[in-house]
Description:
Rossmann fold; six-stranded mixed β-sheet; about 20% strand
Amino acid sequence: xxxxxxxxxxxxxxxAGVADAERRLSPEGERRFQAAARGxxxxxxxxxxxxxxxxVRARQTAAIAAAAWxxxxxxxxxxxxxxxxxxxxxxxxHQPRDxxxxxxxxxxxVSALVAELVGAGSTDAVAFEPGAAxxxxxxxxxxxxxxxxxxxxxxxxxxxxxxx
Length: 164
């Protein structure tokens, strides 16, 4: 299985009179991620499934990525908003072993997921900025066996940087 992990793009700050679950992408975050999503679509063919946290900022990020891939329909996955790593892995278990699955979620969960799968030990090794993405080849979800293919910040995705 290939798992593409994406942190939602930059959102409006907390405390602006909006509940956290309803925070939207900032205009700058939306603009920057549109460029990053085009780069992402050049690097990774359209995934078989695009799972997203149901929080507004993640759904908006997923919709931008889906449009870059040609109209894929994002599916809400509650574990990406408030679940544990085990709950996210359980959601992935329902996907075919040869699938490419894209996930749009939040910090610190996306960093913890990648660190857990590649055995990094610390989330500091894979701290995601808003809009960043990582591609993993997962040999086994049960044993947390994965290889990090690449990890790119938003600007590198937008610039069309080819991972090595």
